[in-house]
Specification:
alpha+beta, NADH Oxidase, 4-stranded antiparallel beta sheet, 13% strand, globular, binds flavin mononucleotide, Nitroreductase-like, flavoprotein, Nitroreductase
Amino acid sequence: MELIEVIRKRRSIRKYKPDPVPDEYIRKIMEAARLAPSGTNLQPWRFVVVKSAEKRRELAQHTLEFVATAPVVVACCIDITAYKYTPQRIKELTDAGAFTGIDMGAFGGDEYMKKRQAMDENALRAYASLNCAISIEHLILRATDLGLGTCWVMMFKQNGVKEVLKLGESIQVVALVPVGYADQDPAPRPRLPMEDLLIQEV
Ligand SMILES: Cc1cc2nc3c(=O)[nH]c(=O)nc-3n(C[C@H](O)[C@H](O)[C@H](O)COP(=O)(O)O)c2cc1C
């Protein structure tokens, strides 16, 4: 599909057929997530692919019921310690030539690192979540391209989901994404008109 067609076709799906999703498709959507861009290539996203019916039932205790009706639920998370690897990520980028011939000015090197280290925990979480959101949308658009339905779900209980999935202290769940074949065909949902979005053209 053309990218714009995928973007137009995507809907939040809240009703799924029980038909299984081929493992090959799961790999493809996870690969799309892996390729997402992130600040200083931090890649703070981590995922749990939940296929087990029992685990999905357990998850349903801590989120909206429809989530567990999809044959697969991807728990999209961040590792809140990922920022510690910033120097390593920057070195990889530098070695790959990402900054060759580019003057990063005040945004490069030590100055940037100092600013990053000065971020408090909330700011670090927000920054990692922002990056994670990009990878989630990659996953969702690739799923749409493969004919699968998905839905962003942020209505869940953090501690409950973490407990069900036995996630460590440094892992924070950002969203649950049910993945399966849609059992509904919703019309496009309303959007604000362009003139409400464009503050100005200068
Ligand atoms: C960050 C984010 C969080 C969302 N959380 C939920 C949610 O918890 N439950 C839900 O049913 N839909 C959730 N949605 C789906 C939105 O309601 C939906 O994207 C919006 O109404 C537009 O509909 P559409 O996705 O079909 O175009 C979420 C979407 C986003 C982007």
